[in-house]
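User: OmpA-like domain-containing protein, uncultured Sphingomonadaceae bacterium:
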Amino acid sequence: MRTQPGVRQRSFVVDGQGEAAPVAPDTRPNGRDDPAGRARNRRVELIIPTA
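Assistant: Predicted structure for OmpA-like domain-containing protein:
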């Protein structure tokens, strides 16, 4: 993940959330699969601490 000099590897923390923190439901109200919801849940979030 390091792409620039001066960014230390230990500055990054990896925390997989998987099914624990979805941003959208994987199923529709009728119980059928919702591909758009599953697509929204496939994501990477970067949080950059300031201090």
